[in-house]
Structure formats: structure tokens, C-alpha cells
């Protein structure tokens, strides 16, 4: 009776369930360890982890509800999700909550969420739907590329101003879905060429119009002038360009400068005030001593401002060593390859494209977060999916897993072709 009840509850691919369970286990252990600053502010060392566990449980409930929804109903939800995404992305421009210099959150009835998280899944769903409808024997019809490109341009334009890294990762996922959807090579080639050109122009715009505040203050100090004079003068030289057009321009330039100008610095010359996140993350990784310090024994969590979120992978390495580091990577890789196996069993294109798109969305963000934590990519605000402490992102990522599990329930094993009978 108990086995039957559990079987009805935990439906879908068992490997995906196991990967999800281990990711949640790592999340609970490491968030509890890395939330020392939150515990200090709240006055209770249990308060942050209890909140995180409650969000995970809410996510699991949403995931179980989602996996019981048949795949065809996701198509019906697409128009409503598009409307919600567009309205919320526009609303956040005017009434969004500003945190860490970016207006990315909406607060509705006391519940804060990032519209970009909903828009990401919606864009993957739309791409899967378009490519499944316009699929031919020779690959995707040329109109499929056009419609996905138009929709992507609208959604990404609303995201990019406040969250460049999210827009870039979402576009990378869409590009991979285009490849999986058998887009003609000529169209993909032209798109890559245009993207390369726009990328160069975008970087030139950032480096030309943006102001690296830390570098400006450093130069002002060298010239024995007031630290605030140079940035103020540079702002007057460019009357409100970064404030009116892209108020994140200065932040982007600062991050690019910091990443491109990174070099070996003697330990006694490291500025732990200006480069706190990168410096303490590097200390956490370097002090792991291969085998790690053990769960709960991190020392850098007390100094790393986003130890429980953006830089939780650095804490995982510090506490769990190389084995824990590669173990987490393998969980995401297994998730991707298992989803690919499920997609390969699907009889129709839509569930296959949708499952692969959501898996790529999770795994691409995870790999980028890991690269940031070990210094291989510029610092961004991307959390580690299903592990970092979060709010709406945690629940939405659980829903993505629920969609993959729902697809795994309907995916059928391919039966071998019957052998031709020998003539009598």
C-alpha cells in the first residue's frame, strides 16, 4: 500500500527524481552553512534555513502538480504565459523593486518575484511550440526561425536593460534549441554573424559610454584629487547617457574591466574591500585543500556577501573539496543527458524540444554560475539552480523539473523494428 502511494506521488523518470533529490540535499546542507550573515541579521541561526526548506517544499508541491499535467496542456498555457511575461516585464521597468542596483523584482500582495524567471520558461515553451508546428521532413521551415527571432527580440529587449546575463544565457539556450530544431544552416550562420557584430558593438558602447567607478576613484586618488570629482565630471561630459538609456552601463563596464584586467596579485596586495566577492571566493577555492574542510566548516562564508546565492559553489568547493565540486557538476550533466534520452523516446517534436530546452536552461545557468565562482567568467547575479538560496527562482526551477517529469511519463520506449521473415 505504501509503495503504491509513493509510486503515485513520485511519478516520472526515477533518475531525474534522484538527481533532484541530491541537488536539494546539497542545497539544504550548503545554504545552512553559507547563511551565517543572514542568521546574524535575523537573530536566529535556524530562520534562514527554515525559510529555504519551506520554499523547497513549496517547489516540490508545485513540481508534483506539474508532473501530473499532460504535455498537451502546456501548449494551451502558452498564450497566457506570454501575456503575463510581457506585462510583468513592462511593469518591472516602472514599479520594480531595486536591489543591488537593478530593478528586477515585482511585489504583488507581499510576494516578490522576478518576471525574467517566468519569461525564460515561456520563451523555451514558445520556441518548442513554433519548431514543432513548423517542422518538416527536411528540417524546420524557414518561417520557424523568423517567428522565434521576432519573439526573442521582444522578450530579450525587455530583459537586457536590467539583467544582461539572463538575456545572454536565454539567447544561448534559444540558439541551441534552434540547432536541435534543425534550423537551416544558412539561417543559423547569418544569425551568428549578426550576433558577433552586435556583440562587438555592444562591448564598444559599454566601454565607450560607461564609467568604471572604482577605476575613476583610483585614478583620482593617484592624481591627488577628490575621489568623487572625476566620476562627477565624466557624468557631466556624458549628460545622463548611462542613467537615461542603460543605467546598468557603469556596472557592466566595471565587471568587464575587472575580468579582463585580472592578473596575479600578491596576497598582501589584494584589496579585500573593492574586490571582496572575487577575492573571498578565490580564497574559499584555494583553501579547500582538495578534500575540503567538511560540511559546515567554511571560513569564507562570513566574509562573502553572496555566499548563500551567487557564490555558493565556492563554498561547496571549500567544504566538500574536489570530489564535491565534480559531484555537483555530474548531477547537472546527468540531468541533461537523461533528459536527452527522454526526448529521444518522444513520439512528437513538441515534448522533446520542450524537455531539452528546459534542461539546457537549467544546466547552462549552472555551468555559468560555476565559472563565475572559480573566476572563469565575469561576476553576474546568476544563482546556482536548485541549490542557491532563492525565492521565486527556486519554485520556478522546480516547476521546470516537473515539466520534464511530465514529459518522461508520456515518452514511450522505441520498439525495435520487426525483422523481415524469411520466404518459405
Please supply descriptive tags for the structure shown above.
mainly alpha; 424 residues; two-stranded antiparallel ribbon; 5 strands; 17 helices
What would you say this structure looks like, in words?
Helix content is 67%, strand content 4%. It has 424 residues and is mostly helical. The strands form two sheets. The protein has a three-stranded antiparallel beta sheet with strand order 1-2-3. Strand 1 and strand 2 form a beta hairpin. The protein starts with a helix and ends in a 14-residue tail after the last helix.
In summary, what is this structure?
With 424 residues, this protein is mainly alpha-helical. Helix content is 67%, strand content 4%. It starts with a helix and ends in a 14-residue tail after the last helix.
Helix content: 55-70%
H/E element order: HHHHHEEEHEEHHHHHHHHHHH
Mean pLDDT: 80
Oligomeric state of the chains present here? single chain
Strand content bin:
under 5%
Low-confidence stretches: 225-242
Give the radius of gyration.
23 Å
Strand order of the largest sheet: 1-2-3
Structural category: mainly alpha
Number of helices: 17
Terminal residue distance:
52 Å
User: Looking at the structure, what is the overall shape?
Assistant: globular
> In total, how many beta strands?
5
How does the major sheet shape up? 3 strands, antiparallel
